[in-house]
Amino acid sequence: MAMHHLKAHSCDAAHPVTRIDPRVKLLCALALLVMVISCRGFAFPLLVSVLSLALCRSLGSPWRLLALRFSEPLFIAATVILLKMFFSGSDPLFSFGVAGYELSAYREGLREGVLIASRILGGVSLLAVVGFSTPFTELMAALSWLRVPQVLVDVALFAWRYLFLLLEEAQVVYNAQKNRLGYVGYRRSLSSFGTLAGVLVIKAFDNSQSITTAMVQRGYDGDMPVTLHRPLRLAEVASALLFLLAMIALRSSV
Amino acid sequence: MFRGALKKGGPGGCGVMTLLALSLPLLSATPAFAMHISEGILPFPWAAFWYLALAPFVALGARRLNSVSREDLSIKPLVGLLAAVVFIISCMPIPVPTAGTCSHPCGTGVAAILVGPLVSVLIAAVSLLIQALFLAHGGLSTLGANTFSMGVVGSLAGWLAFRGTRRLGGSLAVSGFVAGILADWATYATTALILSLGIRGEAPFAPLFVKVVLAFLPTQLPLGILEGVITAGMVTLLYRKRPDLLVKMRVITEKELPVHA
């Protein structure tokens, strides 16, 4: 399943990027993301992509994990380039025959396609750095500090906390179904899939009851404790600003 | 964009239908691998616009969940766990025979049936956020757009279809089937709209929208039906095994409980 590499995700606690305050990191990433998706040239997004990939490697992310994470965006980027190149523009670049028809590629289309593809790669690489270097709970605390509705943060924390538990239960049910030929034939596969999804909903209901009981015994009254944020360090904020200014300068120069 | 494809006997002498036919396999591969709009595809103004469009629904969903969880403390953990279930469901590959590929269901239809369309927006937002951060499915810049299509439109379509079919006398299975289908199709129709608006550049909107919709058809038409079957299966399983949960979530009334329950 696609989420296998969720479990493989871990943070290198000693890396300097990991030690940056998550709020500063998130704000920097969001600012860079805006720069990437509003960029009119492909050099800056590609540069961001290369830098981010280098950071991911230095964070200890294995190549296999990176390949898994980038497989889908790379495929989409390649598709966008092909689509734009062959179906957009008027200045022919080259042409060739397919089944008796002549298919032409266009210069403007290729340029537009490469631009969108570079934005995709830049954005995905940036998110990869944030994902690899920040624990989910810290990210949620940063979102809470950014005034994202607390109830949304609470739901996200519950979801993350019990995601792996439900994944394991899904795996157990799936294996049991598979061992009983539950995925032989299309109709039976569909029925098994529906049962699996239904069982997960039932597990979610049952777990929510036991979780609530356990939490109420520990004083839960409907509100999760608000994360206490330490004041932002001046040095970190100043460094982040300098970094962003450098990136803005770089963006306008390339 | 795609101007060449629209010209009758346009560049290279290809007709509209031929180019369309050639473009389908290319385009249809996109939804097969990515049910959400990828990071970086939408330009900044459109990404911001969809965040703004989503904001009132998130605010309403948050208000609704806050008020319900004041009465029942287990609701917030339940919504969190349902978000995890939607995440898992929407990561499970389903083979689509007509396209020869795998795609995955949305899962928001069943969430909307159980907790209502407003809270389902929060479930979709959380599920998509985790997918964007850790699986590179969708993205942060496209989170607003993806949540709008899957969370707002998908949930509303699923919920309205379920309630409407029930009111017309449809059984739980039929209502779940219709809800699953419409939630999926409405999600992809909105995704096609968002995508066409975002990437059209200077080109006219309507032809591109039609092309993107046509491109989604080979995978999403059968996938919608499969999602309908799965949603119906889930709802009937809940009815058979745990009808009390459906009563608690006000999907059915106590009068509709099975005799043995």
Walk me through this protein's architecture.
The complex is a heterodimer of chains A (254) and B (261). Chain A has 254 residues and is mainly α. Helix content of chain A is 73%, strand content 5%. Chain A folds into 2 domains: 1-134 and 230-254, no CATH class; 149-223. Chain A has helices at residues 4-8, 16-19, 22-37, 43-58, 63-87, 107-133, 136-145, 150-179, 186-217, 234-253, and strands at residues 92-98, 101-106. The longest helix of chain A is centred in the last third of the chain and has 32 residues, at 186-217. The radius of gyration of chain A is 23 Å and the shape is flat. The two termini of chain A are 40 Å apart. The mean pLDDT of chain A is 87. With 261 residues, chain B is an all-alpha fold. Chain B has one domain: Arp2/3 complex 21 kDa subunit ARPC3 (Orthogonal Bundle). Chain B is 72% helix and 2% strand. Chain B contains 10 helices and 2 strands; from the N terminus they run H-H-H-H-E-E-H-H-H-H-H-H. Chain B has helices at residues 3-6, 16-33, 44-71, 75-89, 108-115, 117-135, 143-167, 172-199, 205-241, 243-248, and strands at 94-96, 101-103. In chain B, strands 1-2 form a two-stranded antiparallel ribbon. In chain B, helix 7 (143-167) packs antiparallel against helix 8. The model of chain B is unreliable at 1-34 (pLDDT under 50). Classes of the chains: A mainly alpha (254), B mainly alpha (261).
